[in-house]
Amino acid sequence: MDSIQEWTVTSPWAEPHCDLGEGPFYEAETDSLRLVDIKKKQILYYRCVSAPASAHAAAVAPEVVQLDVCPTVTADLDGVDPRERIVVGVKHGLATLDVRGAEGRYEMLVPFREPPNERLRANDGCADPLGRFLLASMTDFGYGPCQPEGGLFLFTRDSAREIISELTIPNGVGWSPDRRTMYVTHSTARELLAFDYDPAAGGAMSNRRVHRRHESGPAEPDGLRVDVDGHVWQALYGEGAVLRIDGRSGAVLGRVRIPTRNATCVQFVDEDLFITTAADEDGPDPESRRLGGAIFRVHVGVRGLDLFKFKI
């Protein structure tokens, strides 16, 4: 077996003490990293993240937008300044958020369903190459163990339909550089799924298959991004790692190790990879408990693909 590339991160880049840090997104217009803390109902902004002076931001307090609902993921709106409005996944579906004040004022665009199912909330998602939005749903906090009642929904500005059903925790979504392959994570099945994707046919999906099943450790695969070489960088929740996965074969090409267990998602800024995490209150390792909810940064020497914008 060929050796894989290894990176080890020993200290955090920033320590916002997230309960459930997720959805890191690079806001290019302002050179900012924004992320959500789902449980604290917050969107956090770190500014000037590509500048050399930001290599160690542990003492920098983020700007915080407080919501009265759990934000689960954000994206930019096509043709809209992200300093004014962005799109955000919330409990019942997709909303736009006015970010010009500290108190987040949001407007629902489209719910998952009418009437809403109180058992469910949004999870991860992103805009697709055609400017639509893919948003996962899953069992909400307080409704017991997660059940196979979630799914992946396709949103336009005025409609939503479920395109994959009976999922327990659907998670990160991404595309190959040629936009012909779409990746979707099913965390509880420990599967990175792949589909043939045809932009010319309205984003038609076919040929569902398991691109990689995580069987080498205790973790569940979580959020992901795809690099310019077509390889998938996937966070491992419960294993303190991020894997670089071959976009063709599914083989593991690289591994980033971090000093806390619950890696949740990743985001590229130039050739640096930012890693969000969740709290590790019950973990056996004191260092992992201390650093749960921190953000980590590592230079990996490759750029990520730009994320798409939602066309409203």
Structural commentary:
It contains 1 helix and 24 strands. By secondary structure, it is an all-beta fold. The strands form 6 sheets. The protein has a 5-stranded mixed sheet, with no helix packed on it. A 4-stranded antiparallel sheet has the order 2-3-4-5, with no helix packed on it. Strands 6-7-8-9 form a 4-stranded antiparallel sheet, with no helix packed on it.
Which key terms come to mind for this protein?
312 residues; Neuraminidase; SGL; gluconolactonase activity
Summarize the model shown.
The protein is mainly β and 312 residues long. It has one helix and 24 strands.
Structural class: mainly beta
- For the secondary structure, the number of strands is 24
The count of helical stretches stands at 1
How are the strands ordered across the major sheet? 1-21-20-19-18
> How many separate structural domains?
1
